[in-house]
């Protein structure tokens, strides 16, 4: 892959994380682009960027930050070289990364293949074990029924922690 310069970066996020990325980009003379929803129109991150564009309508406070098509449209229309997802929202979405790359935009983050592989905790643990990374004892398969959860808890030993294998939205 040929190395490309990054002259302008869009942060597909809001708030403090966007501000931190803008500050880092400005320190290396990279122009910055913010996106914001109507509800965030007075948010500090909008004013810390060199350019800022509203996404979504008046009644959508957060959904526009998940609108891949709209974010890429804004990036392309404003000659953005790279997109940084921040954290949360689309940061662990391999489809977003793939769509950025397909649009000719540099994706700042893990490769989509890595996100797909490690986004499932059971699959990620299998990869870790295969690469001799120490892991704690846990179930070896998805626990899709209460009886399986109970069986696995007894096998692993108490106390136990139950965690979603994928997603969870930070909950």
Report on this model:
There is one protein chain. With 171 residues, this protein is an alpha/beta fold. The mean pLDDT is 90.
Concise overview:
With 171 residues, the protein is of the alpha/beta class. It has helices at 15-27, 44-48, 68-77, 94-102, 112-118, 121-130, 146-156; strands at residues 8-11, 31-36, 51-54, 82-84, 106-107. It contains seven helices and five strands; from the N terminus they run βαβαβαβαβααα.
Which features would summarize this protein structure in a list?
5-stranded parallel sheet, single chain, 171 residues, 7 helices, alpha/beta
SSE layout:
Blueprint (H helix, E strand, L loop, with lengths): L7 E4 L3 H13 L3 E6 L7 H5 L2 E4 L13 H10 L4 E3 L9 H9 L3 E2 L4 H7 L2 H10 L15 H11 L15
Parallel strand pairs: 1-2, 1-4, 2-3, 4-5
Helix pairs in contact: 4-5
């Amino acid at each position: 892959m040929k190395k490309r310069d990054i002259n302008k970066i869009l942060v597909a996020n809001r708030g403090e994380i966007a501000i931190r990325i803008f500050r880092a980009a400005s320190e290396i003379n990279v122009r910055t682009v913010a996106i914001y929803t109507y509800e965030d129109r007075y948010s500090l991150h909008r004013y810390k960027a060199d350019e800022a564009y509203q996404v979504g309508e008046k009644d959508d406070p957060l959904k526009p930050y998940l609108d891949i098509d709209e974010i890429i449209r804004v990036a392309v229309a404003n000659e953005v070289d790279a997109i940084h997802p921040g954290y949360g929202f689309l940061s662990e979405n391999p489809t977003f990364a793939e769509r950025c790359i397909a649009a000719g935009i540099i994706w700042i983050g893990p490769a989509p293949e890595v996100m797909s592989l490690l986004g499932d905790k059971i699959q990620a643990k299998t990869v870790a074990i295969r690469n001799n990374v120490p892991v704690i004892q846990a179930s070896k398969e998805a626990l899709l029924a209460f009886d399986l959860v109970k069986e696995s808890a007894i096998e692993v030993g108490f106390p136990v922690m139950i965690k979603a294998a994928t997603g969870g939205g930070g909950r």
